[in-house]
Each structure stands twice: as structure tokens, then as C-alpha cells.
Amino acid sequence: MKIIELHESVTASNDRDADEIRKKMKEQGVLLINLMSSPGSGKTVLLSATIQALKDKYKIGVMEADIESDVDARHIEALGAESIQVHTDGMCHMDAGMTEEALHNMKEKNDVIFLENVGNLICPAEFDTGAGKNVMILSVPEGDDKPLKYPLMFQKSDVLIISKIDTMTYFDFNLERCQKYARELNPDIAIFPLSAKTEEGMAEWTDWLESTLKEWRK
């Protein structure tokens, strides 16, 4: 497993750089997914379950962005997926320049690459990474009012995964209300309530992933 130290991109043209990354990924037939959430939402657990479900069909790579540590990257690597750890030098997000540098350090020809962005619901929403799709995770313990508190994240995301639905009986979480708030901000957002632990809802998520990859490659 490789660990690379990245610094904030010095370019003032992040959006242009992001468009170039998308163009390259499209030409290569590789779907790059920017995965965003708060810490503890279950990103790594979801990625693990996704890799297990699809590893016989597709090669999946993961770029683990974090301020420090390599715990998550080692876990992903143990599942047989290519994984690199990205240290962001204290930055709370990835941008296009940082993403491009990380992509250059990946050696496998992957079908799907997940960028597990730094855990928070503010900074990652503000910077285009060049991903083909933006996916965010909101876990049940965080509460159903998060769309009201972090609207930009929901507006920028193509997919909302509501994770840990197996814990709904323990928390005051209204699924319908959360979906209503999210769709008021983004009518086109796809929503997948699921539990990576019990596998409830996982098939709908992986079906979306497969169909999106096929569409991306047209």
C-alpha cells in the first residue's frame, strides 16, 4: 500500500482542472466517485460491502483521503482492492489538483475508483474533484435535519445514501422527512436508505453503481 503526502493545489483554475479529469476518466471508461460524509457515517464499511458485492465483476480502487493515519486504506487493501492513502497536509478537503496527483499514483486499471474524501459536510462540497458522480452518506445517528444545516452538500450530490438504517429504532430519525428535505434542495438526487451491516438496501445501491458505470462508458 502506498502513502502519498499532498498539499493544497496552487492552481486558481480548479473547475477547469476538474473538467479535464472528468474528460480523461470518461475516455478511459473509469468512473470516479467522490464519496463525502461526516466522520463516523460508515464510509469505509459501505466501501467494504460494495467491494465484496462487486469484486467478481469489476476492479475497484479506493483513494483514502485523510489528514493523517492509514487505518482505512489498510482495511480496504485487505479486501483485495487497490488502495492508496492520501494525506492532505491538514486540509479539510480534496480538490482537482490533489485528486489528479493521487490518480497518477494508482497502478491498477480499475473500473471504478472511489475517492473517500476528508470527513466533514462543509469543505468537500465546495471543491470540484473531477469526479463523475458525487455521493454523500448521512447516517441515521446524525439526525434527519442535516439537509437544513448543510444545504450545499445536498445540492452538490448526485446520490444520498442514508446509512445505518438498522439503528432507526434507537434514534429519532424520520426517513420520509429527511428525504423530503433533501429533495427540496435537489429534486434530482437519488436516495438509497441502506445498512451495510445487514445488507438491507445494498442491492439497490450496487444496481445504481453498475448502471451508472455502463452509462458512463457509452
Tell me what you see in this structure:
The protein has one domain (2-213): P-loop containing nucleotide triphosphate hydrolases (Rossmann fold, 3-Layer(aba) Sandwich). The protein has 218 residues and is an alpha/beta fold. It is built from nine helices and eight strands. The model has no long low-confidence stretch (mean pLDDT 91). The longest helix has 15 residues, at 14-28. An eight-stranded parallel β-sheet has the order 1-4-3-5-2-6-7-8, with helices on both faces. The two termini are 32 Å apart. Helices cover 39% and strands 21% of the residues.
Number of strands: 8
**What is the end-to-end distance?**
32 Å
Decide which structural class fits the backbone.
alpha/beta
The CATH architecture is 3-Layer(aba) Sandwich
Low-confidence stretches: none
- What is the number of helices? 9
CATH top-level class: Alpha Beta
Biggest sheet strand order reads 1-4-3-5-2-6-7-8
CATH topology: Rossmann fold
CATH H level, superfamily name: P-loop containing nucleotide triphosphate hydrolases
Radius of gyration, in angstroms, nearest whole number: 16 Å
Q: Outline, from the CA principal axes?
A: globular
Instruction: State the major sheet.
Output: 8 strands, parallel
**In percent terms, what proportion of residues is strand?**
15-25%
